[in-house]
Amino acid sequence: MARRQSQTLLKYLFNSKPNPNPRFSRSVTYMPRPGDGTPRPVTLIPGDGIGPLVTGAVEQVMQAMHAPVYFEKYEVHGDMKKIPEEVLESIRKNKVCLKGGLATPVGGGVSSLNVQLRKELDLYASLVNCFNLKGLPTRHQNVDIVVIRENTEGEYSGLEHEVVPGVVESLKVITKFCSERVAKYAFEYAYLNNRKTVTAVHKANIMKLADGLFLESCREVAKKYPGIKYNEIIVDNCSMQLVSKPEQFDVMVTPNLYGNLVANTAAGIAGGTGVMPGGNVGADNAVFEQGASAGNVGSDEIVRQNKANPVALLLSSAMMLRHLQFPSFADRLETAVKRVIAEGKYRTPDLGGDSTTQEVVDAIIAALN
């Protein structure tokens, strides 16, 4: 009897026609799989400057929405000589970290802890999503660019020395292995997220061997993804095209230094660095932080006034939730943030408003309900 009922049900499902009235059709909803609701530990690094303000905002919102994560907090600051080993152990154990900006001293031979963290954990791909937000006026519309940047070599290799007084040599390292894996990440991202085009950014007309190797690697990977259009653009032309017609770009894959410049330019075009999410991803670990590095530690005045913009890190934490396979929580958080931006009542000074960080957080928490 039960077998006949199952056959009848299957026959009905396969033979049923699409509902002509879309108002009564069911939408696809996320159903948590067994075990997905288990709370996950996340390493939290508040960082310097506005870091404690914006990471505190994330903690409040996560608590308000009862997100299945809890934080292991560590104090790390940019003037330290290196990332403490217990912090690295925590990230390796948890596989996921959320961090505020770490100040990088200019000159003086002090290495960047941000770069150290990427190298120690082999976070080889930096991802920054730059897109228009409804209600936030910008010069260009229909901007939705993903910048994927090689994160471990290039000009950031840190191989510098003084040849003779007054002459410094800095080595740019490009390898086929690192170029191929970041190119593969870019094409995989495009494929999984229904993106149509990947554009490689380079300066191979001048750096024929180094950037030439990066391009060669991108071309080889592109052949394996025939359904995705592949373009190449010289970095100086890319800068001009970004500020004149940014909507032409989709996914961009770049060597290390170019990616930093391109991501910050794209962020400024799409609405500012304070609203663009990002993350750094490796084979085993991921660190989520404000997407564009410019202004990620803010200024003393912003800290004193408590007017740091928490939107970028909140959207980055939504990326983190999706990475942890909690898409319903990620969607809920993104929807609340975008609603507050669209309404325009609560905005920090960088978006033309005068709200404090806490006022924006309270508005987002209210929009969750």
UniProtKB/TrEMBL annotation:
GO molecular function: isocitrate dehydrogenase (NAD+) activity; metal ion binding
GO CC annotations, alphabetized: mitochondrion
SUPFAM superfamilies (alphabetical): Isocitrate/Isopropylmalate dehydrogenase-like
Biological-process GO terms, alphabetical: isocitrate metabolic process; tricarboxylic acid cycle
Pfam families registered for this protein in UniProt: Iso_dh
Compartment(s) where it occurs, according to its Swiss-Prot or TrEMBL record: Mitochondrion
Span list, region Disordered: 15-36
Principal subcellular localization: mitochondrion
Highest rank taxon of the organism: Eukaryota
Domain Isopropylmalate dehydrogenase-like: residue ranges: 41-364
Biased segments, Polar residues type: 16-28
Swiss-Prot/TrEMBL keywords: Magnesium, Manganese, Metal-binding, Mitochondrion, NAD, Oxidoreductase, Transit peptide, Tricarboxylic acid cycle
InterPro entries per record: Isocitrate_DH_NAD, IsoPropMal-DH-like_dom
Family under the similarity heading: Belongs to the isocitrate and isopropylmalate dehydrogenases family.
Reported function: Performs an essential role in the oxidative function of the citric acid cycle.
Name of the protein this chain belongs to: Isopropylmalate dehydrogenase-like domain-containing protein
